[in-house]
Every structure is written in C-alpha cells, then in structure tokens.
Write a structure and sequence with these properties.
This protein is an all-alpha fold. It has five helices and no strands. The chain is globular.
C-alpha cells in the first residue's frame, strides 16, 4: 500500500537526483501514514533477533536528541527529524557516496559479482 505511493524519479534524472527523489517520496508516504514507521520499527532484525533500542550505546542520546522543539508536521518518528534536517543529512550522505563512487569505490558484493563474472 505505502510502497505504491512512492513516486518514481523524474525521467532522465541522474543517479544521485533519482535516489534523492525516491527517498524524499518515501518519506512523504511515511508522513501520510504515521502508523507505518512504528510497524517498521517494531519488526525484528536479522535471524529473528529484536532490533536493539536506539541510543543504547550512547547514554542519554535520546533525551538530548528530543530536547529541542521540532516541526511536528514533518517528523516521521521522535527526535531530530524535521524536513530540513532530514534533507541536510540525506544530501551529506549522497555527496559522500558520490565522492566514493568517483574514487572507484564499490561494495564487497559488487566486487564479488564482478570477480565471478570475469
């Protein structure tokens, strides 16, 4: 249901723009269906183990992250997650991935697939 609401990227968009568009569209879908993020977060991780609560490794990180007021209309979950901060962090990640790609970085899975094919 929610996946069907995620818009495809604009035809002809570059890889980075296409990824950004898809992620922002998915975020918009989650904002329309606020219950969905709670369902996703309640799922178990690999091998049926529960996903550990966020912030366990850094004491009080949740309290720090939620201490400031944020835009409740653009928050998918609790904490620092309003639209501006989300897009800023997304752009930082995509820029970093692009730089890695330009330097010839590939994932381990891609390396294995290339080695098996070659």
């Amino acid at each position: 249901m929610i996946v069907g609401e995620i818009d495809p990227p604009t035809p002809g968009a570059g890889r980075k723009d296409a990824i950004r568009q898809r992620i922002l569209s998915a975020r918009e879908a989650l904002l329309r269906h606020r219950w969905a993020s709670q369902v996703i977060e309640s799922r178990t991780g690999g091998a049926g183990r529960p996903v550990p609560p966020t912030g366990r490794a850094v004491p009080h990180i949740i309290e720090i992250a939620t201490a400031l007021a944020h835009d409740g209309e653009s928050a998918v979950g609790q904490g620092c997650d309003d639209q501006f901060e989300f897009e800023f962090a997304l752009d930082v990640l995509l820029d970093g991935f692009e730089r890695l790609h330009q330097r010839g970085w590939t994932s381990t899975a891609s390396k294995r697939a290339a080695e098996a094919a070659g």
